Amino acid sequence: MTSIIEQAHRLYDAVPTEIPVPDGSLFDVLSDAAAHYPDRVAIDYFGAATTYAEILEQAERGAQVLLDAGVRRGDVVAVALPNCPQAFTVFYACQRIGAVAAEHNPLAPAAEIRGQLERHHARIAVVWEKCAGAFPLDGSTELAQVLTVDISAGMPRSQRALLRLPVERARRTREQLRAPSPAGTASWDRAVLRARAVAPSTPQASGDDVAVILHTGGTNGVPKSVPLTHRNIGANVNQCVFWVWKLHEGAEVFYSLLPYFHAFGLTFCLCSAVRKAATQIVLPKFDADMALDAHRRRPVTFFVGVPPMFERILRRARQTHTDLTSIRVGVAGAMPLSTELADQWEQATDGMIVEGYGMSETSPVLCGAPLSARRRHGVLGVPFPSTQLRLAALDDPSRDVEDGEPGEILVKGPQVFDGYLDMPEETARVFTDDGWFRTGDIGVNRDGYITMADRAKELILSGGFNVYPSQVENAIRSMPGIKDVAVVGLPVGDEREEVAAAVVLEDAARPVTLSEVREWAEKSIAHYALPRQLAVIAELPHNQIGKVMRRTVKEQLANRTSQLFEQASRSVAGAVDQASDVVRRILPGDGDADRDDHPDASQQ
């Protein structure tokens, strides 16, 4: 039998089967780009342009700020920022001195952030002003200093001046961008302006050192922290760059709309774009109109995102008669891309769109569809260069399944992490004795292309985020009047799922509404994980040992009529555009639709 890898390599065309694995610091990616393209615009932020030479200087100043704060090689710095120039410079400031950037979702609940801080023990944090309250200096964590960021500081002067106008619209926008910093914090922006560049003799990290810590539920929903080394991310950067071989160094414009704090955005936008010395269109939230405004100003050539982003951009481009033909290549990930949307995108751009597959633990990309006439849509793709992939029997990970049969996706490669932070039992659970990482996803091989057959456990893929039913159930079960609850994912077309909750009420409890359940649960879980459908039922099905049978619940809810769900409440929650499920809204506007989440991607 021909192996999956042999079949995949036949589909590579211009892509090498092996890629160089870097041994140095990720900071070399930025310093090399600045050395060869110093005057090239690195970041376009609302029209304000920053060159590679300028961004390198800012990163080196930021590195000195961290050194002055007591950060040394191997220390962890908590980072919680939307996409903005400072998020770029903080990341590379950490890489310059060998510090570890622990990336946090700036709109995650405070309880979630606290758990992450307790795992990685950061003493310094650099955070958006509006989320600084989730990073306390009261001794309840190990944080000793919090530096706050004004994300409006990088905007053009004219726009900053408009924010100061004494009119209602300016006030609302200002409140969306800024907030008073808590007592005891200091300004990162002012500190960088005052700092000198770090001394050239300051040592950097090696490939074996941890560069980044990401946060995930992994394959079973247990909150975990994922350390990725400079080599892990550097290798995946090279894999991505070689895979998307049609890009030209120093000549591309990237849409950087995926959040830097998510594995997908971090590797593709924060690192791979810099590796190609590309210009990045950076926005702190996903907004199709703002994205198209930027595209008309500086035509985009490459777009990596999640399917709802492509869908929203395409729809608004049609409505506004915006030409998209400069976008030669698109890469979609984190959730399935429908064949219909792929065809529509390629017709509108006269370019190509391919899909990728991966997860935080793999830096994140493992597979991609070939960027050629051999591409297929609706697949995870073929294994990346320097990546080994097997489909193992579900009852025996040492045995491979035949082509066409479902098996668990097992991988090895330079982009695969070594294990979870201080969780040896979880690490042992996801690695086989001979070192294969068990993704927990079930795939099928057809001619070298891997397709998704099922997801391990009962993970819900909602808008590109992994939603773990047990976490949502725990949040809802704590609500007064709720006796029991089961959470499942229900299909809503185009291979998407919505979070649905079936609740059993206490005997004397009054009826509950979907909006009430969402309001209660949002105190402890992320917005993207909130249920969008609610059914009140008499009892939940249990197996012989008393465990709720979620699969049975899912079947029952899928078969019930629409009257079981609160359509009125769904007008509040369910009418939110799917794109907002994938990208956490950093700048909320009027209405519930603007309160949705700016990723996580999490991961597939």
> Order of strands across the widest beta sheet?
2-1-11-10-12-13-14-15-16
Strand content: 15-25%
What share of the residues lie within helices?
Answer: 25-40%
In total, the number of strands is: 26
Based on CA inertia axes, which overall geometry fits?
globular
CATH names the topology of the domain at 52-205 as Rossmann fold
Euclidean distance between termini CA atoms: 29 Å
Q: How many individual helices?
A: 19
The stretches of 5 or more residues where confidence is low (pLDDT under 50) are 561-604
| Main CATH class of the domain at 52-205 | Alpha Beta
What structural class results from the helix and strand content?
alpha/beta
How would a textbook summarize the main sheet?
9 strands, mixed
Average pLDDT rating: 89
Radius of gyration: 23 Å
What is the CATH architecture annotation of the domain at 52-205?
Answer: 3-Layer(aba) Sandwich
How would you concisely characterize the structure shown here?
This protein is an alpha/beta fold. 31% of the residues lie in helices and 22% in strands. Among the domains are: 4-9 and 385-455, Luciferase, Domain 3 (Luciferase, domain 3), CATH 2.30.38.10; 52-205, Rossmann fold; 460-578, GMP Synthetase, Chain A, domain 3, CATH 3.30.300.30.
